[in-house]
Specification:
By secondary structure, the chain is of the alpha/beta class. It contains 12 helices and 21 strands. The protein has helices spanning 58-68, 82-85, 88-94, 104-114, 183-194, 198-204, 227-238, 256-270, 311-323, 342-349, 367-370, 373-385; strands at residues 4-8, 11-18, 23-24, 28-29, 34-42, 47-50, 74-76, 99-102, 121-123, 129-131, 136-141, 151-155, 160-164, 215-218, 243-250, 274-279, 295-302, 304-305, 308-309, 329-336, 355-362. The strands form 5 sheets. Strands 1-2-5-6-7-8-9 form a 7-stranded mixed beta sheet. It is elongated. It binds MU-OXO-diiron. MU-OXO-diiron is lined by residues 79, 81, 83-84, 146, 165, 220. MU-OXO-diiron binds at residues 79, 81, 83-84, 146, 165, 220.
Length: 389
Amino acid sequence: MKDTLEIKPNIIMLSSKDAERKTFDSIFPLKKGTTYNAYLIIGSEKTALIDTVDPSKKDELISRLKEMKVKVDYIISNHSEQDHSGSIPYILEMFPTAEVVASKIGKGFLTDLLGVDENKIIEVGDNDKISLGDKTLKFIMFPSAHWPETMMTYLEEDKILFTCDVFGSHYSFENPYFTEEVLEYEKEYYAEIMMPFRKTINFNLKKLDNLDINLICPSHGPIHKEPQRVINLYKKWTSDETDKEVTIVYASMHGSTKKTVDYIVEKLAEEKIKTNVVDVSNFNISNLFTNLVSPHTLIIATPTVLGGPHPAITLVAMMLKAYRPKVKQVLLVTLYEWGSNAEKFLKDTLKDFNLAGSWKISGKPDEEKLKILDILVKEIKKEMSKNDG
Ligand code: FEO
């Protein structure tokens, strides 16, 4: 059966591909579409469906369940966002006696967002269990990843952890198992969806330390056969540790800001400091968040437009305020010809960061003017060397 995979006896992945989807949350570009993975667990007495699929794919899920001639007793809702929960009302129509299992907050969300009858919802807390006969589901509350109601489900006998968004990737796959090719999508997913909640996620990851896990089954992207690899990556990404790298985010209209950024990149390269350059001109935020996961320093460079930063940089500043990447310092570079409030706007918006320096260049950035940025490079080198053994 297409996109139906028995990953272990009586444990079936029901994955709906959405290769054509171009953006997520109407903002994040998807290079390889996405998948919505539901999982069916057939126990000796009861059957559970773990999460569902985006409502646009509900017919696929329904026809697969019909083909398998199963009766679903429990619908486990690890996360109430509609790309996983949106088909629950249709599955409940198909199996009127089924009960939905969710966290306390999840129960409220499913009622509010989808109109699920609250009497159909079983509320569970940390370490609560439901027996399917020869299989046992244990629930692990994992809030703020990335909504407050999120939880994971652990299948004790088979040692499989169903994590919904956590450890997922927007990647429409042929191979249902993780390969190195997926790593950049996994990091991008973390950056765009999970990064704002990194401290809570880092704290909650401790809950997985004592679990014996053979497989991690997320609800987007491929399955992980090496659970510790992705758990360790999440531990690193969510920690306070940074890499000795500089990310430069800029927009340019006539090439002056680009020329300024090129100069900084060249000077940092001379100091053997790696740079990641993200051009957000035309509001292209592909690669923006991935490059904010672990850099030591962030430089924002902008021309002045209508007295403020370029609108794409204004958007970036607003998102940075919400995303709170763990950079140790932020440096500003503002270009202008006449009056500019760009620096003031950025300083006000980013006041929660360590704003360690700001440079302004008026008119054409010729060699002489660019030399003021040598100090910026020295400051970065000095700051990074503080962390050396
Ligand atoms: Fe994939 Fe937060 O939903």
